[in-house]
Amino acid sequence: MAKTPKIALIGNPNAGKSSLFNSLTGLNQKTGNFPGVTMEKLTGIWELEPKRPVEILDLPGIYSIYPKSIDEELVINILGDPTHPDFPDMAIVVADASNLKRNLLLFSQVRDLGIPTVLALNMIDVAENEGYVINSIKLARELNVEVAEVNAKKGIGLNGLKLAVVKTLANRYASNDALPLPVAEDLIQEVQAKFGDGETYRSLLWLMEHDRMKMFSTQQRETFDSIQNKHHFSSKKYQSEETVKRYEQITEVVDRCVINLNRQWDAAPVRTWTDRLDKFFLHPVGGYVFFLAILFVMFQAIFTWATYPMDAIDGGVAMLNDWLKGVLPDSALTALLTDGLIAGIGGVLIFIPQIAFLFLFISLLEETGYMSRVMFIMDKLMRRFGLNGKSVVPLISGVACAVPAIMSTRSIGSWKDRLITILVTPLMSCSARLPIYTVLIALVVPENKALFGLFNLQGVALFGLYLLGFFMALVSAWVMKVILKAKEKSYFIMELPTYKGPRFKHVALTIWNSVNAFVFEAGKIIVAISIVLWVLASYGPGDKIAQSEARVRQENPTLQGVKLQNKISAEKLENSYAGHFGHFVEPVIRPLGYDWKIGIALITSFAAREVFVGTMSTIYSMGGEVDDENATIKNRMRAEINPLTGKPMYDAALGFSLLIFYAFAMQCMSTLATTYRETKSWKYPLIQFGYMTALAYLSAFAVYQLLS
């Protein structure tokens, strides 16, 4: 069977590379890690021709093949190593047509590595709006490659790109024979003699970047050093001079192939909609106000719009459980199916609407180009708390998930700044906290409308929790800055993309991938733990479970029907293995207002925060005390009575105490594992777990005591 060709998508940040990837692959995508690297990669299948698929690899955005951060190192380790599993058969370099000169630097480097290359000119419409007309046919002749004009957002020009790729794969031409800046011929010959004959520019890349390339051993790196010393070769000097030389050549090409209508007609620069909008969105005061307003509306919508499908799912799962209990024989297998498996699945499905709405808004902000403005305006605020300007990206990404957010800190050059960012990023309220927030807010915050009936108080509470996590991350970062004595200055440089209308196919794809990841990644954990919990809650040491029913009947001779069964279920749960675990931790959590049932949920949710809801669903489906058989998890928890006070268990004091605990607690094994992989030490995950747990406990204690 013929090998499927592999094509790498390469480009500057914000050049539209990811949009083109989505347009080419659609739903034929999968996520994984690069071989030997704990960094997420996206691959997909593109039907180049009938029955001729090619594999598309979306590489991280870079400005040059001379890396300044870990994610850029990843790219040169692939492009510079023909033996790498992800080494491409060809490359598509995606260039922003409105900023062609800068984008062609990376293109020229990739082409000179000897990789067959197609240049995809993206955002031609933006370039034309700014007064630039590009002669792509002439540009193709000048660069000696195939050039295709595309609009990745709208999926325009993909057929032309296909033809360019087919021709390039067939001809396999790419390399520019001459180096952009000559070096001593015997220098290259010595490198090729000792490390293998290949493309001249690739050999030069090995010489300059051997310390960053994993393909070389320590002994080989020492050999490279000796070659540099022998020939008095300075990598930094050559890279600097080479970049200047490349830009001189690129400028000549661009001048011949691009017409600037503004300059030709001596016209004033075109004032675009991006310029007009940025005056407001990047305003030192108005920018922050608008961002907070967007967040406020977003969380209002998440609570308001998602309520109806969530209630329908919650009620549907309860009805399915009741129906199964009615038609299946009363047995341990039926109990496992209904109270274990179905309850666990219900704990996953109910939050799909809110996860979908959250990523709908995040995707819209990214698609329109506004998210980059958020990072820009937040940079100044971040620096006051000791964070690097590039810390904005991980912190905002942490609203979705802390794992990829922590991995994205690789773009931060300073080790101390990167370490602080890693340690505080999990304080951002991620999507895993959303299910917990939803259930608890619904229990303790009324659905009343505020401010002339425009805003839902539950949405306001959700907005407040997200803000609380953000400000606590800033405060924690400031404390760590003082402790670590981080004084190194850093710079945050990014290109702001133009504003664009969202392509709803891409938005839908983002929502689908996010929901899919939640259901099949977090969902597997939730369902598995729900089943294990059912076993622990159904069996106990000795004959305590068997004695529970007799004891309840003896102590409550007047109870009958549903109330008697509820009492028996609660007693059995308390004497089960799970109940013993809960009672074991109860003395520690009692000052927070928590009982042994909540203790069980705290233990199980150490695997992943969202397991809390699945655990409570299982516990209250087995031991809840309600008369309505078709009761949802919210109703069961709302009906729970505190045995010490005789009042509802989930009052404001307990509810807000739990909310604060989960807002700050480090209860995510995946995040701790990622911190270990990124820092190469168990010390930092332990510090992260320790300070976040202490912060969560003390804050929850203060809230409970204050509101009690």
Automatic annotation (TrEMBL):
Transmembrane feature ranges: 280-303, 341-365, 385-407, 419-445, 457-480, 517-537, 652-674, 686-707
Principal subcellular localisation of the protein: membrane
Alphabetical list of CDD domains matching this protein: FeoB
Keywords (A to Z) from UniProt: Cell membrane, GTP-binding, Ion transport, Iron, Iron transport, Membrane, Nucleotide-binding, Transmembrane, Transmembrane helix, Transport
Protein origin, superkingdom: Bacteria
Keyword Transport: yes
Every FeoB-type G domain range: 4-171
Keyword Iron appears in the UniProt entry: yes
Membrane topology qualifier: Multi-pass membrane protein
Record's function text: Probable transporter of a GTP-driven Fe(2+) uptake system.
Protein name: Ferrous iron transport protein B
Annotated source species: Aquirufa originis
Gene: feoB
